[in-house]
Amino acid sequence: MFIAPFYNTPKLCVTTSWNPNATTIVNNTIIGTTPWGIFVDKNNTVYTASRQYGRIDSWFADGRITTRYISRSSSQPYSIFVSFNGDIYVSSISSSSYYIDKFTVNGINSILVGTTSRLCYSLFIDFNDILYCSINDDHQVVKKPLDSDSNIWTNVAGISGSSGSSSTMFNQPAGIFVDVNLDLYVADWNNDRIQLFHLGTSTGITVVGSTSSNTTISLNGPSGVVLDADKYLFIVDQLNHRIVGSGPNGFRCLVGCSGSGNAAYSMSSPRPMAFDSYGNIYVVDRDNDRIQKFIAMQDACCELFVHNARDHNMKSIFSIGINCYY
Q1: Which of 54, 156, 166, 172 is 20 to 30 A (C-alpha) from 187?
Q2: Terminus-to-terminus CA distance in the chain, angstroms?
Q3: Who's near 263: CB < 8 A, 6+ residues apart?
Q4: Contacts of 158 (CB under 8 A, 6+ apart)
Q5: What is the pTM of this model?
């Protein structure tokens, strides 16, 4: 049985491109300096984390804006993930301690969910309500059930406290993504690669990077990874200041392809990205203190199909047509 995700994995054309000039939807007057987290839900509500102001802002498609502050003082929020029922989960730092908090759908104050040994760089919730956390400085990914009151985290991949480049290790893992098969993708930041961990395994497969068994693309500090409906990968290549994507013809640079800068067509140390339901790309342009939106420019996708049937004499009848979706 197919389960529709509660985050956006848009169906994209092979020919889809994005306007190279982004629209700034939030700047430093609102989000403050060096923002971090972003999430876009199925209703195209955009959630952003302001480290400077210790708050989560929600930008609704109908123009409404809500702001919620982390309950404890001096908290700096980082990663955001919104669950199926609309609860907002956020990782944060406060006084050298590391927290995971939750805002309920209509709640104003945050509720403590758990603590971690170091900063949870990226959060993700799978279809079984399992919360994943990549702990960058401990070089591991851990998980725990959302319905558990325990603060016991189970190691998924990586060796706590030990960095390395083997198939069982990370060097500062960053963004994570869990697909519909519960396979885990990890942006292994300091190893310049994307690692795939099939469900139940702790040995990673390099699917993008110089050590991949297939020819892919060179990365420099990948900080985020997401998938589309066809399981093609889209990667925030942070230290190359760009977003790259895969497809049936391999990898290509999508936006930010001319290097670091603060123009509409460039970024500086981008962090996570997210799709909306239309395939538009939202990305945290960290060092430019802004959230950028790159608009998908493909209006329709058309695919050739061949239909094979039989007539009443059991002779094969072939028909050819085109399916288009928008």
Answers
A1: 54
A2: 24
A3: none
A4: 138, 139, 140, 141, 168, 169, 170, 173
A5: 0.90
